[in-house]
Amino acid sequence: MRVKMILPALTEASSPFFRPIKYSLFPPLGLATLAGYLDPGDEVTLTDEHVQKVDVSDEPDLVVIQVYITSARRAYELADHYRAKGAHVCLGGLHVTSLPDEAAAHADTIFCGPGEDTWPRFLADLRAGRPAPRYDSSERTLAGLPPVRRDLIDRRRYLVPNSIVVSRGCPHVCDFCYKEAFFEGGKSFYTQTVDAALGEIDRLPGRHLYFLDDHLFGNARFAGALFDGMRGMGRLWQAAGTVQSVLRPGLLEKAVESGLRSLFVGFETVNAGNLKEQRKWQNIDRDYGQVIRRLHDHGVMVNGSFVFGMDQDDPSVFERTVEWAVGQGIETATFHIMTPYPGTRLYARMEKAGRILHRDWDRYDTRTVVFKPARMTATQLEDGYWRAYRNFYRWRNIARGAASKPTLRGKARHAAYAGGWKKFEPAWDVVIRAKRAGAALPLLESVLSGFGARPAGARAGRPAAAPGERPAGDTPVTIAETRLS
């Protein structure tokens, strides 16, 4: 059987002028995982449209397309093309699960929810000549997961070829998150066995790893055992965690000992009232400053995530957020305009209130306002979002953040990481077009390691800081891999 797997490019990643490195970070692990279930005799190709063109002249028997909201239009174009050529077309992922009827108009088979249980059933049905038009996930387990087909991935095209996912979902229930819709009908957070996760890590070459899990620290027992097993492997790794998990005594220390050097943290907002409104319970009554100090004391860089446009935000929120983040010495920041994705509680609430402006999915990109804000105009929200990015990454603010580090090596690491991420996008474009993004990996490893330094906390034997008081104010891998950070 000739099988073609496609990850269509997100609308915001298809600019003809330059290609930000963020869209060439991670290979499509979800599709590569599904490929592991195919028979050895099947001919399979995997195309990631973020880094290569889709050859539409071929004639596969089976086409599998992973759909995000801002790639839906492109995904449907490809699906219609291959259906017209006689291929059996499968669609799955976050957007398909949220709007199955929309997706079904462009597919022979759709998948709702994670695919570890439904994909093998579909393959058996297909070979028996009776594939169903829809498969809904209900059994949630990672037992018996086959090795990811990394042989289908051209490592040279990605800055972070060693991305990995060892859990699915997240234990929290934030209103703006896709997770609850995607995992409806079964468990919304579950992990591999520690041995299976360590086995996958051991198969990866080199030093660097990036855990794409929505919340690697979500099961403290699993995470602690995983970090214990990784100790001594000589890895340098990055991941995502919550404010709550950073403050948990002992867990961060184990992570650092096993190689953690950078953490994506969802602070989301400097307005405490927004947290309750969005059911972000894990951030309420947490001292954000203490979180950053705890990470920095252990030599871990911080990528802070912030969402603008929640109902407590007014036009002052942009400057206040940037000033706070720069003052805290956060190395990198990711800003988003709040986006009510279909299938989420946020979308249902906004739709009921008549606040959804349109349903042009191409514009649901967290950079465009698609709802009526409560305390500012749509123009103020969009302009403030872009202004926050410009201001945070101004050289003077990068220098201010770097100056907060106590050592010259720490200052250099901060400047190199923040500046390299946002100030050299034209240079990244040249590297990406030359298919050499992976050649920059040694530089990333050098920056993450502090140019050879050990973490500050490890050198000094500094004790863990205690949780503070009040605040200052995310994969599922299947047909639905979640995040391009």
From TrEMBL:
In this chain, the stretch annotated as Disordered covers 457-485
GO CC, any one term: cytosol
Q: Which Pfam families match?
A: B12-binding (PF02310)
- Known PROSITE patterns for this protein? B12_BINDING (PS51332), RADICAL_SAM (PS51918)
In this protein, which residues make up the domain named B12-binding?
Answer: 37-133
What keyword terms does UniProt attach to this protein? Answer: Iron, Iron-sulfur, Metal-binding, Methyltransferase, S-adenosyl-L-methionine, Transferase
**Which InterPro entries does this entry report, sorted A to Z?**
BchE-like, Cobalamin-bd, Elp3/MiaA/NifB-like_rSAM, Methyltransferase_Class_B, rSAM, rSAM_sf
Residue ranges occupied by any Radical SAM core domain in the UniProt entry: 156-375
Question: In Gene Ontology terms, what is one molecular function of this protein?
Answer: cobalamin binding
Q: Where is the composition biased (Low complexity)?
A: 457-470
Q: Which cofactor is essential here?
A: [4Fe-4S] cluster
What PANTHER family is this protein classified in?
ANAEROBIC MAGNESIUM-PROTOPORPHYRIN IX MONOMETHYL ESTER CYCLASE-RELATED, BLL1977 PROTEIN
From what organism does this protein derive? Actinomadura montaniterrae
The protein in question is named B12-binding domain-containing radical SAM protein
